[in-house]
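Problem 12. The chain below contains 419 residues. Write out its predicted structure in token notation.
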Amino acid sequence: MSRVHRNGRLGIGISLVAGAALAALAAAPAHAEGAKIGLLGGLTGPIAQPMVHIVKAAEFAIKQVNDQGGILGGKLSLVLADSKCDAQSGQAAANKLVNVDNITGIVGAMCSGATISAANAVAVPAGVVMISPASTSPAITNLEDKDFVFRTAPTDAAQGQVLAQALFNQGVKKVALTYVNNDYGKGLANHFSTKFKALGGIIAGEQAHEDKKSSYRSELATLSKGGADSLVVIGYPQSSAPIIIRQSLEGGLFKKFVGPEAIFDKSLWTAIGIKNLEGMLYTRPSSPDNPAAAVFEAAFKAFNEKAVGQLFTSQTYDATFMLAIAIQKAGSTDRAKVRDALRSIANGKGEKIQPGEWKKAVALIKAGKEIDYAGASGSVDFDSKGDPLAFYNFWQIKDGKPAVISSWKFESGNPVQMK
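Solution.
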């Protein structure tokens, strides 16, 4: 009897303790665990070198959030996943992020094919927000994505036309064109070619190329037969682009080179020798008259000076910081609520939040006030398709250094040179 009595009392005690614990858990915020964000990018493959700096930009945004009190009562963490810059690997990596790591949203992917595959097969069916800082294929604009896919980098539908107009204005009227045979290369090449021809320019030779080859001499020999002095190169800075440019120079086939932001790459310049690239022209997304850019660069320099000004670092920071703000505003890690909150912080309405102003953003959200994030990469107010406004600088290698020679915006379907 006494043993039974003691067991009974012990059972009552356990029940009381358990009940108290459950009551305490119920009273605590349901979101005290914080949140996880996935970074999906080509950690290996043709963009591995730029990814080193891109990861640093995301880590910097995470650090700022956690240093200023964290998110949803806990810490914000970053989970890396390697898309290898291809569609199949991108899908597999996204699947792990969503279904194993249980992330709330994805920054990425970087390469357009990986983004399209990950979105269609994984993120959209699962209702997970993706914000790509680097995928520029026009095909992404019209994905049936249920408003779950966004970009902080403008579409190549804009960049291709800006590149064509800026190049034509520079007096270059005849070019050869080669592009990597994937969604990114095809989309950009098509918009460039169509606009350049409409302006009266001549495409003296046009050919797709496969990535990761050791030689493009055969393709280059064919392209040079049209008699163009300039070659437009749409490829990756760690794979096809430097090989194509170097072999063009070695064979004396083309004198000058033109391209999008992918050929703005210091390792490419070093490998070939920047003096050998004198006169090279390229476009790159920009952020005109943007005080937020200076705020970001000053703080980022103290965190990792080598990453400042590198390809897509500001766009990556913006995507990461915006996703964090959206989670905080949603008040939970509910993925659909995060998507809706993302729209509300990037529509041009409310008090401006600059890079690093996490405490201010949290305070405004708590007070029920509207906020509008002012990006390090420029205006990141999304249009109906999830794309940002498009601004570009047109650069030239002059006296061994890159210099801006004109600035552009893409407005109402047309490239417009800015003052």
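Discussion. The chain has a mean pLDDT of 90. Students who got a different answer should revisit the alignment rule from Section 12.3.
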